[in-house]
Amino acid sequence: VLGKSVQALVGAIYQDQGAAAAKKFVAQHLLTRTVDVEAVVQMKNPKLLLAALTRQKGMQTPIARLMKETGRFTSSPVFVIGIFSGVKMIGTGYGSSLKMGEQRAAKDALIKYYAKEVKDFKLASLTGDEEQVTFFDQPSL
Q: How buried is 122 (Cβ within 10 angstroms: 0-12 exposed, 13-18 middle, 19+ buried)?
C-alpha cells in the first residue's frame, strides 16, 4: 500500500508539473533517505539462509567461531562470534548464549552481502533529454 501511494504521488507530480519536477522530487525526497536495514529485516533462520547463499555463490560452508567471551559462568555472559567462509570473516555477532551470537553473526553476514551501498550509479532519467523521460507507457498511434 505504501509503495503504491508513493508511486501515485510521483505520478501526480509528473502529470501536473512534468518530468523534471518528478525527477527533482524523487532525488530530494526518496533517494536521499537512509534505511536502517537491520531494524527492517526480520529473518527466521539466518544461519540456514547464509548456508544457502554461500553454497549458491560457490563459497566454503560458513563456520561459527568463538572470538571472545566474558562471564561464561555468571548470570550475564557475553559471547562474540565470528562467521567465517574459509579464512575470511564475513560476519560478527554477540549474545548471551553461543546460539544467539551465531544467529546475529549470520544475520550480520547476510546484511553485509545484500545491503551493499552502491554510490556510483546514474539514474536513467539523467542520461537522456528531459522530454524523453516517461513514467508511463506511451500509447502508440
A: exposed
